[in-house]
């Protein structure tokens, strides 16, 4: 359960927004005590290092390079400026675990880990949006092991299950727009060669 943020210059447990007061909660997985920016997704706050985001993502780097406009009503949480994003807390939190906390979804030391398909879809979508090539490449590489181009490898479900698991048809359906988004047609299921028409 996440804990409630008490902003240093805000009413306790609330962040000032036009026309409303919204209760904000600290992420219980990505809240770095020495972080210098708070990224707010929905009502969940992630305290991270601006330099880390700028180093890894050209999108965040461009955002942080914009000149600051003085605003006496600007939000802050525990003395840190607040950056609002439109992503879900689950999606941005999963990305920040990799960028800011060194999370490895694929291996524990030398042990291969099975990744939930929903996590891979989320990481690919977020890494593409924020232009984080290494995270995108790693996630696509793992997904390609689950979705091989070779038909015989595709039909070997036990081998594919070593890399990825899915418990929802919705996860699988998300792959189609993902293949288009990343221009990776190899993610689509292989097709059998068409039978020759007898003459």
Automatic annotation (TrEMBL):
Domain BTB as annotated: residue spans: 35-65
Matching InterPro entries: BTB/POZ_dom (IPR000210), SKP1/BTB/POZ_sf (IPR011333)
Name the record gives this protein: BTB domain-containing protein
Gene3D superfamilies given in the database record: Potassium Channel Kv1.1, Chain A
Family matches, as SUPFAM superfamilies: POZ domain
Coiled-coil ranges (or none): none
Pfam families: BTB
PROSITE patterns: BTB
Domain of life: Eukaryota
């Amino acid at each position: 359960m996440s804990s409630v943020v008490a902003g240093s210059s805000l009413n306790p447990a609330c962040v000032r927004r036009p026309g409303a007061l919204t209760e904000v909660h600290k992420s219980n997985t990505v809240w770095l005590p020495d972080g210098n920016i708070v990224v707010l997704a929905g009502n969940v706050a992630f305290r991270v290092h601006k330099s880390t985001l700028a180093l890894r993502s050209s999108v965040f780097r461009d955002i942080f390079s914009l000149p600051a406009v003085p605003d006496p009503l600007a939000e802050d949480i525990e003395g840190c400026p607040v950056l609002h994003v439109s992503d879900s807390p689950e999606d941005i939190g999963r990305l920040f675990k990799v960028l800011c906390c060194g999370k490895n979804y694929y291996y524990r030391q030398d042990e291969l880990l099975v990744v939930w398909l929903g996590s891979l879809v989320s990481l690919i979508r977020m890494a593409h949006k924020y232009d984080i090539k290494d995270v995108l490449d790693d996630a696509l590489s793992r997904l390609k092991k689950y979705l091989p181009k070779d038909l015989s490898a595709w039909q070997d479900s036990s081998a594919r299950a070593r890399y990825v698991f899915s418990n929802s048809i919705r996860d699988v359906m998300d792959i189609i727009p993902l293949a288009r988004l990343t221009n990776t047609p190899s993610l689509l299921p292989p097709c059998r060669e068409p039978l020759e028409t007898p003459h």
